[in-house]
Amino acid sequence: MNFVRWFFSPRSKNDWKSWNSLFLTLPLVFGLVVVLPSAHREHLIAARQESTIGVVTAYEPSNHNQCSYTFAVLGKRYTGESSSPNLPMTIGQQVTVYFDRDAPMTNSLTDYEAASRNNVGFSRFLIVGIIVIIASILYAKRRAIRH
To answer: How far apart are CA 43 and CA 65, in angstroms?
Structure first.
């Protein structure tokens, strides 16, 4: 029996087991638990974000384009590591570094506002997935009760 037929098959009023299908939402809920705090943190940093020019000190394309760089804020030197959004990088190349003005050691080569938007978009996708699964369960239950 295929899953769709099983999922939407009618059941007696007293023997509704399709609520077990709610477990299908667990990966989506887990995704939300992981993504939402990150999106919130990046949103807060984006409100305080500033940028400056840094210099690439190391680049490892085999390590997920890991890029090490240095930059200065108010005369103090900082270092950072981030996956490079641009390919390829060369040692000594100038890059734009985004940092939290209140804590410059929190920095990245990716704009925090864009990262926050991406995470919020992915969160919306997960929420829609959860709603679709729950709506399908309710639809199947309603259909089963009618029969």
So the answer is: 24
CB 104 within 8 A of CB 76: yes
Mean pLDDT is lowest, of 80-89, 92-101, 126-135, for 80-89
- Residue 138 inside a domain? The answer is yes
- Residue 71 is assigned to a structural domain of this protein: yes
Q: Which residues constitute the domain of residue 88?
A: 16-146
Q: What is the Cα–Cα distance from 39 to 44, expressed in whole angstroms?
A: 9
pLDDT tens digits for range 113-147: 888 888 889 999 999 999 998 888 888 777 766 66
Q: How many domains does the chain have?
A: 1
Contacts of 49 (CB under 8 A, 6+ apart): 98, 99, 100, 101, 111, 112, 113
